[in-house]
Amino acid sequence: MVAAAVAGFNIAQKQHCVRVLGSNQPGLAVAMTEDLTEAGINLRGFSAAVIGTQFVAYVPVDSQAEADRAGDVLNAVV
User: Distances in Å between the alpha carbon of 8 and those of 16, 19, 20, 67?
Assistant: First the structure.
């Protein structure tokens, strides 16, 4: 961790992430990230996988407030 700090990286004290589950549809990841961007929500990353006809996505964000907002935005998309 010292090397990371010397290189300018900061250690996150808390992580907030929204898990999204649903039916897989072409273009869904694009729609989700576009809507989050339009809502002004900063993404720390984005990970998704398809399992059969279903998908799961993990959307890390900066704070609990952002996670709550992201959940509201994503409920409208999925």
Answer: 22, 29, 32, 26
Q: What percent of the chain has pLDDT over 70?
A: 96
Per-residue three-class SS string for the chain: CHHHHHCCCCCCCCCEEEEEEEECCCCHHHHHHHHHHHCCCCECCCEEEEECCEEEEEEEECCHHHHHHHHHHHHHHC
pTM check: above 0.90: no
Task: Indicate which CATH number applies to the domain containing 57.
Answer: 3.30.70.260
- pLDDT tens for 23-46 read 999 999 999 999 999 999 999 999
Domain carrying residue 60: 13-77
Q: How many structural domains are present in the chain?
A: 1
